[in-house]
Amino acid sequence: MRKEAFIYSRYLCGNDPSNEVISCYESFVHKAAFEAGKEKCLQNFIVTFPFILPVLDAALAFFRPRSIVRKKLLLMFALLECQPEHADKFMPGTDQNRGGVYLFFTGTWAIVKLMAGSIFLVFL
Amino acid sequence: MSEPFDFIVVGSGPCGAIAANTLVSGGARVQMLDAGILPEDAFSSSTKTNYEQKRKEGISNSDYFLGNDAADLLSDDISTGAQLTPSRKFMVSRVRELLPLLSDSFFPMESLSYGGLGNGWGLGCCVFSEAELKRCGLDPQKMHLAYKEVAELIGISGADDDAAQYTCGKLQGIMKPLQMDRNASGLLNAYTGKRADLNRKGFYLGRPSLALLTEPKDNRSAYRYDDLDFYSNDDTSAWRPRVMLEKLKGNANFNYSGNAFVKGYSENEGIIRVSYTDLRDSSEKEAFCRKLILASGTLGTARLVLRSSEKRDSALPLICNPYYYIPSIQWRMIGKGLGEKPVGLAQLSLFEDRDNKNEDVAMGSIYSYHSLMLYRLILQAPLDMRSSAKIFRNLLPALTIFGIHHPESAGSGRFQYNGKAFSASYEHNDEMNAQVIKRNKRFVSVIKKLGCYPVRTVDPGFGASIHYAGTLPFAEGEEPFSLDPTGRLHGSKNIYVADGSGFRYLPAKGLTFSLMAWAHVVAKNLISK
Q1: With an 8 Å Cβ cutoff, are B55 and A71 in contact?
Q2: CA–CA separation, B302 vs B481, rounded Å?
Q3: Is the separation of the CB atoms in B90 and B38 below 8 Å?
């Protein structure tokens, strides 16, 4: 689970998680009591090939929004968002001034990832 | 038996607090019985900071912003109360255990906390028009006087603008309104440009009146613009029942009994016996008074009255405002900041008064979605989380929530007790549904005219408005389960109801201020006797 926490944290904010985040993440996952064995293959694949996570996440968001991987990512996202050292990455800042064009390209890139991820998802 | 109190007030919410205050001010001896559930740290953590500092400073904020329960985070539950922030969760603590309600069509929020639902009140204050008061069964003259007196007591800020006839903007002595953030200013500017057209269609936009101080008053400080409106409980600029109760506790004529979960009452030879469970040790106890005032909320009072009645299996009527919310994007705000003073409370109110009669008015409260976390939004887009985060981070200053309340007449709901459990049902016929849908469409059309893109219309179900009334409607004759014009429960001699149970109609305008005014009317009448 520790390795998983590192992979998710790096994916979501580009940094390794602090010990506190890891411990909270483990505790939350434990409390959530996800169904054992479900999506095991998918989770193992992500741990083995972490660079695939962005495209798999895109595909899961569209085809399996309630998947365990998405729920675990949400847990990590919420924990990272609460960390003061990462606050700037989650709050609207003065550095933005990015309008519709930025949003359009972000959305388009997300669709490309979705298409790539859906190919992987067929086999997992 | 100890010397009975002059009055026992059941419940510490806005109605209970106001009723007790009016009675004590009139020289009566008052005992308040209240479950008063309150975690030790609920009001102790002082947040002399603001939202941005709180997010960026310190070590970790996961307890403050997230709580310690993953179940909430992963739940798809959109029921009333499920979205409370961790520091407000105490409001619904033990409710499922002590106030179970069976229903598949009505999902209310009830509270057993110290201060009741007043702890999470959005602070909006509106006055009902004469026509609306009459339809409710209330005396307009007494209520208008009570509005003034309660406003003076709690402190209200607002503006005399286009919405003033629906809010408290026309009341004398109200404080200047809150400063708006850029999102709200943008909407108001758009409205000003299209004012004539929108007014012709019966829509009026203005500043809401809030039970929030913008200037210091009675040892209470002015609002700090800390943007922690969904989190902080220690700020006294917002009027909460706690503000009044803490002051009352210093009065020798007031006795607050917490941990008292009232189960029922009986009236005999001028003395009322109130039975309750002491929540500390589950022991059964009794208290005695000459007059009993029930102020535990429409549903809480209905439970007590049914439990104490011989006809306990009767079905009571029930009304609540249909409520919908419309998350919208204000185009011109994308990628911009909200300015230096963002506010989580309602900053604008949009009223639809089609006939210009100030009757059957619908109300939209407008909020900037700023101080709530991204993780609450992130799953709303079917995109990978990184892209979603980037998009929502840019959309956040532009995200505007329109909460639409619809007026409601009697005849839609039922509240029942079978001797073991309480149940409720709520439904609209096709005509009522069509009316609500048409009104929502008109609001959507105005939202577009104000330069916003309405993403969708969310129906959280009956009960989500947290505005309930009409279980013991006002009636002229001595009908069972009804109230006389003074709030006395028919069939009783000295049992009064000081919450919304008697209202036969629910205007869409914010209800709490009118409930408080009604509680004041009931208590004032009893004192004058």
Answers
A1: no
A2: 9
A3: yes
Shortest CA gap B124–chain A (Å): 27
Secondary element (H or E) of residue B324? strand B323-330
Instruction: Compute the radius of gyration of chain B from its Cα atoms.
Output: 22
**Cα–Cα distance between B365 and B509 in angstroms, integer?**
10
Each residue of B418-457: pLDDT tens digit? 888 999 999 988 888 999 999 999 999 999 999 999 999 9
A97 pLDDT more than 60: no
Q: Which of B330, B386, B396 to mutate to test the interface with A (most CBs of A within 10 A)?
A: B386
Please give, rounded to a whole number of angstroms, the shortest distance from the CA of A1 to a CA of chain B: 16
Q: Does position A40 have pLDDT exceeding 90, yes or no?
A: no
Is the pLDDT score of B116 beyond 90?
yes
Got the DSSP string for chain A? -HHHHHHHHHHHHSSPPPHHHHHHHHHHHHHHTPPTTTTHHHHHHHHH-GGGHHHHHHHHHHH-TT-HHHHHHHHHHHHHHT-GGGHHHHS--TT----HHHHHHHHHHHHHHHHHHHHHHHH-
Of B57, B58, B396, the CB nearest to A92: B396
Nearest chain B residue to A67, by CA: B74
* Beta bridge partners of residue B102, listed in sequence order: B423
Please judge whether B375 and A32 are an interchain contact, meaning their C-beta atoms are less than 8 angstroms apart.
Answer: no
pLDDT digit string, tens, across residues B465-492 = 899 999 999 998 888 999 999 999 999 9
What stretches of B72-222 adopt beta strand conformation (E)?
A: 101-102, 124-125, 203-206, 209-210
**Mean pLDDT, rounded, for A118-123:** 81
Q: What residue ranges in B72-186 does DSSP mark as E strands?
A: 101-102, 124-125
Mark yes or no for CB contact A82/B373 under 8 Å: yes
- Judged by CB atoms closer than 8 Å, whether chains meet at B374 and A103 is answered as no
User: Cβ contact (<8 Å) for B394 and A114?
Assistant: no
As a residue count, chain B comes to: 529
CA–CA dist B366, B363 (Å, integer)? 10
Record the pTM: 0.92
Coil, helix or strand at residue B345: coil
B62 and A24 within 8 Å at the Cβ level: the answer is yes
ipTM metric: 0.91
Task: Return the pLDDT at B43.
Answer: 59
Residue-range domain boundaries for chain A: 2-123
Nearest C-alpha in B relative to A68:
B74
- For residue A31, the chain B residue with the least C-alpha distance is B70
Contact indicator for B65, B85 with CB cutoff of 8 Å: yes
pLDDT tier for residue A8 given thresholds of 50, 70 and 90 = very high
Mean pLDDT of chain B: 90
Structural tokens at position A91: 């709050």
CB contact under 8 A, B393 and A65: no
